[in-house]
Amino acid sequence: MGITIHQTAAGYKTFMIKGGLGMVTYHADYLERVYAGWLGKVIGVRHGANIENWTYERIERAFGEITDYIYNFKNFAADDDINGPLFFMNALADLPLHQKVAAEDMAKVWLNYIADGHGFFWWGGYGISTEHTAYLNLKHGMTAPQSGSQEQNSLAVAEQIGGQIFSDIWGFLAPGDSEAAADLAEKMSSVSHDRNGIYGGRFVAACCAAAFESSSIKEVIQRALTTIPEDSSYSEVVRSIIRFHNEQPQDWRACFRYIQSHYGYDRYPGICHIIPNTAVVVLGLLYGDGDFSKSINITNMCGWDTDCNVGNVGAIVGILTGLTGIGERWIAPINDFVCASSVIGSQNIQDIASIAERTAAISKRYFLGEELQDKPGVHADFDFELPGSTHAFRNHYPQGLPVTMVCKNTDRIASSGKRSLQVTISSLAGGESYRTYLKTYYTPEDFNDSRYDPSFTPVFYPGQSISMSVYISQGDEEQVAARLYAHNLQDGTRVYGERTELSVEKWTTLTWKVPRIPGAVLSEVGVEWIPLAEIFGQPKSLTAYIDDVQLWGEPEIDISFASEELEVWPTLRQEVRQLTHLRGLWTLEEGLLTGSGAGESAEAYTGAHYFRDYTYEVTIRPVIGSSHGILFRVQGAARSYAAVLKQGQLTLMKKEGTNWRTLQEAPFTWQHGADYRISIVADDHHYSISVDGELLLDYTDHENPYTSGQVGFITMDSSRTAYVDYRIHPNKR
C-alpha cells in the first residue's frame, strides 16, 4: 500500500492511499464533511421517523407541502438507522492493526454490540425481519455470509431494505473511493442480506464516498452505479429514475407516480423491500439537485420507509454540500445529541461531533495504520473545533424570569484552537443560578417514546473529575462567579466545586473532582454562572465562553439496590436504573436486583466502557440453580470475564464470542439463600478474586486480554440470582 501526500496552496495536506482497496483521499476538510454527513443522516432519520410507512397520500393529506420538521421531540430516541452505522464501524476499530476486514469480522460486531432480541433493530420474527433472522443465524453458530444468504433465508428476506440503510458509514470511512466503500458495505451487508440487499449497501456507501469528490449529485450517482452489477434489477431501477428525471426534471410528483406504478410495494415480497425505497432515494437525490432541504423534504413526502430513505439522502447530500449547505433550522433541534440502543449503556449517550471525530480516526486507523489516540485517563474531550458543534451541551435558567439562554459554536475566541462554545444570557438577576451542562444520564422522562428500546448507564461518576476553560466578555455584567457542579438524579440535589470569581477578558480553567457520593446517579455535569451584583434599572446580560472540556479519572461507585428504581417507558417496558441487559429477566424485588434466564446465560451490565483498572465488589445471593456470578471487563455481549459460583467451586471464565472458556477454578462451598461478598481486583491483565475476604483465584491472562470495560451480573444454567449491592473503586497502589 502506498501513501502520497500533496501540499495544497493553503498549506493543508491531502493524503491519498493507493493499494488493493483503491484510492482513499483525505482532504483538509475531511473531518468537517464527515460531520456534515453524520448531521445529514441524523436529521434525515429524525425528519422521517414519525411518519414511517405512511403513504404519499396520507402525508400530503396531513401536512400538505413539507418544508420543516413535522414533529418536535424532547430528545430523539434511538433508531435502527443510526444504531447500525454507529456500531458497525467498530468492526474496523476492533481488528488488530493492519488487518483487513472480512465478513466474519463484521458478524462479530453484531454479536458483541446488539442485545439478544431487544433494542437496536426491529425484532419482527425469524423469516420476517431480516436482521432478526441474521442475528439468530449468527447466534447459533452460522458464519457470514451464509447468515444473510438467499440460499439460507430466501430471496424475499435477503432483499429487504437493511443492507442499504446502514451503509452510509462505509462511505464516510473511505472518502473519495467508491469501490473501497462499496466493498466494505458488501462485507457488512452480506451478514444479513444478499443480491439486491447487498447492491443497495454498495450503492449508498459508494454515493457517500463519491460525494467527497464530486461536484454534482448526478456525478455522485453515476460513480456509485459503477460499483454494482449493470444487469441487476437494482441498477435497472436507478437508471430508470435517471431517465425519467432527464425527461421531466421539474416534476418530482410525476416521477413518484411512475415509481408507484412500476416499482410499488405491491410488486415485491416482504415487509419493506429495497427496490421501491431505492427508487425514492434516487428520486430525492435527483429532484433535490444538491439542495439539502429540498432533497430531504421531497424524499419524506414520498412516504414508505421514510426515516431510512431520508436518512440516506441526508447523509449523501450532507457530505456533498458540507456544513454550509445544511440550514440552522435542521441542525439546532438536534443539538449534536445521539441516543443509541446498543448493549453498552455508556455508549448509548453520544454526540455527533465526537462521533465524527471517531469516524475519521477509525478510517485513518484502517487505511493509514494510525492507532487510535486517546489521552491517558481522559474519557471525554470536547474542543468545539468543528463549526457549529455543541457536543450536546445545554442551558438551564431560573424559571419565571424573563430570560433567554443560548449555546452556540463561535470562532470569535478560543482557549485553544479556533473555536469555542458561546453562552449568551439575555438578562441576569443577582445571586441566581444559570447553568450550562452536559447530560450524563437519561431517563424515560427525557423522551417522547421508547423507540428501539434504549437504556443507559451513566458516562460520569463520583470520584471522577471535570475541567473546562471559561471566559466572560467585557459587557453589561462584569461581576460573575462560576463553579462546576454535578446533579444527583437519586435525590435531586447538586454538589458543587469551589466558586471562582471570573476575571473579564481572561480565560480561567476550572477543575473539580466530584467526591464519593453513595447511591448517586449523576445525570448532569457542568458549570453554574452566578451574577454577584444586585441588578437595578436596565436588564444586564452576559456573554460567556467554554472551551477544552475534559472528563477523566477513576470512579467511586457505591450502590445499594434497595435505593435503585425501575424506569418505566411509554410502552410499559421496564428497565432497572443504570443497567442494560443482554438477555434474561432483570428486575428489582424487595430491595434486591434479581436475574434469571432459561438455558442461556442471563447478563446485565453497568458502569462505563472506558473503565480500566478497578476493584469491583458485589454482595451476591444464590436463589435457585447451580451458577451465580458477576462480570467484569465487559466490552460487549461477546467479550467479558465472569467469576461464577458453581457447584462446589468458584470459577473464572472468559467469554469469546458466544462461548465461555474456563480459565481457573478453586474449591468453594456455598449454599442457596446465603450472602457472599465477591471482590475482583482487575489490574491490567491480572485478576485477583476473593470471596468474603479470602483470596481464591489469582490469574494473569496472556492471551488477548480484555484490559477495559464495564462490570455486570450473570446467572447461568437456568439459575436465579439476587444481588444486594455493588461497589467500584480505584485499586490500592
User: What's the Cα radius of gyration?
Assistant: 26 Å
Which CATH architecture of the largest domain? Orthogonal Bundle
Specify the number of helices. 20
The helicity comes to 25-40%
How many DSSP-defined strands? Answer: 34
Query: Which percent band covers the strand fraction?
Result: 25-35%
Residue stretches low in confidence (pLDDT < 50, at least 5 long) are 7-13
CATH class of the largest domain: Mainly Alpha
> What is the fold-level CATH name, i.e. the topology of the largest domain?
ADP-ribosylglycohydrolase fold
For the sheet with most strands, the description reads:
8 strands, antiparallel
Alpha-beta content class:
alpha+beta
Q: Ends: how far apart?
A: 45 Å
The CATH superfamily of the largest domain turns out to be ADP-ribosylation/Crystallin J1
- Summed over residues and divided by their number, the pLDDT gives a mean of 95
So what's the overall shape?
globular
Tally of structural domains: 3
Structure description:
- By secondary structure, the chain is α+β, with helices and mostly antiparallel strands.
- The chain has 3 domains: 2-66 and 74-347, ADP-ribosylglycohydrolase fold; 380-553, Sandwich (Jelly Rolls), CATH 2.60.120; 558-729, Jelly Rolls (Sandwich).
- Strands 18, 22, 23, 25, 30, 31, 32 and 34 form an 8-stranded antiparallel sheet that branches.
